[in-house]
UniProtKB/TrEMBL annotation:
Belongs to the complex I NDUFB10 subunit family. It is a peripheral membrane protein. Coiled coil: none annotated. It comes from Falcunculus frontatus. Accessory subunit that is involved in the functional assembly of the mitochondrial respiratory chain complex I. Complex I has an NADH dehydrogenase activity with ubiquinone as an immediate electron acceptor and mediates the transfer of electrons from NADH to the respiratory chain. The keyword Mitochondrion applies. It is found in: Mitochondrion inner membrane. PANTHER family: NADH DEHYDROGENASE [UBIQUINONE] 1 BETA SUBCOMPLEX SUBUNIT 10, NADH-UBIQUINONE OXIDOREDUCTASE PDSW SUBUNIT. Keywords: Electron transport, Membrane, Mitochondrion, Mitochondrion inner membrane, Respiratory chain, Transport. InterPro entries: NADH_UbQ_OxRdtase_su10 (IPR019377), NDUFB10 (IPR039993). The keyword Methyltransferase does not apply. This is NADH dehydrogenase [ubiquinone] 1 beta subcomplex subunit 10. GO terms for cellular component: mitochondrial inner membrane; respiratory chain complex I. It holds the Pfam family NDUFB10.
Length: 175
C-alpha cells in the first residue's frame, strides 16, 4: 500500500453528522401517521401477542394428533339408536382412513427399498414385498368392492357374507 494517499480520491467521512435545518414550522405528516399507526394498531397487537406467548410458555401443551375414544361397532348398536349409528359410522370412516395411510406408508417403504436396492430388489426387498401383500390383502378383504360411497353398514354386511361363505366352505370340506 502506498504511503502517499490521494486524499481527494478517497475523502474521509465527516466526524459528525450535520443537523438538518427545518425550513418550515409545519410538522411532518409522515411522522404523525407513523406514531398514530404505532399507537392505534401496532401497540395493541404487540401487547396481545406478547400476552399469548407468555400464557403459552406457562402452559405447555403438546398436541400431536386428536385421539378419539373408541365407540361401539355398528353390530353392537341398539335398534333405533341413531346417535350410535352416527358414531359407529364416524369411527368406521376414521378406521378406513388409518388403514389407507398404513397401506400408503408400506407402499412408500416398498418403493424406497426398490429405489435403494436397484437390480437386487427381489432378494433384498422380500420382507417389504410380503408385508405389502399382507397389508393390501387385509385392506381389500375389509374395504374392497365397497366403492367410494361405502359405509359401515355395507362393510358389516360384506364381512357377514364372507364369514357365511367361509363357514359353508368348511362344512362342505368336512362332508
Amino acid at each position: 500500500m502506498p504511503e502517499d494517499h490521494d486524499w481527494e480520491a478517497y475523502k474521509v467521512p465527516p466526524t459528525r453528522t450535520p443537523v438538518s435545518e427545518r425550513t418550515t414550522s409545519v410538522p411532518n405528516p409522515v411522522n404523525f401517521f407513523q406514531s398514530a399507526f404505532s399507537y392505534v394498531f401496532d401497540a395493541p397487537v404487540t401487547f396481545v401477542r406478547e400476552w399469548i406467548e407468555r400464557w403459552q410458555t406457562k402452559n405447555k401443551f403438546y398436541y400431536y394428533h386428536q385421539k378419539f375414544r373408541r365407540v361401539p361397532d355398528l353390530s353392537q348398536c341398539l335398534e333405533g339408536d341413531y346417535l350410535c349409528y352416527y358414531e359407529a359410522e364416524a369411527q368406521w370412516r376414521r378406521d378406513r382412513m388409518v388403514d389407507q395411510e398404513i397401506v400408503e406408508i408400506v407402499r412408500e417403504r416398498m418403493a424406497a427399498c426398490k429405489q435403494r436396492e436397484g437390480p437386487n430388489q427381489f432378494q433384498n426387498c422380500a420382507k417389504e414385498m410380503e408385508l405389502l401383500a399382507q397389508v393390501t390383502k387385509a385392506y381389500q378383504d375389509r374395504y374392497g368392492e365397497l366403492g367410494y360411497h361405502g359405509n359401515a353398514r355395507t362393510c358389516l354386511m360384506k364381512q357377514k357374507h364372507r364369514m357365511m361363505e367361509e363357514r359353508k366352505a368348511a362344512q362342505e370340506k368336512e362332508s
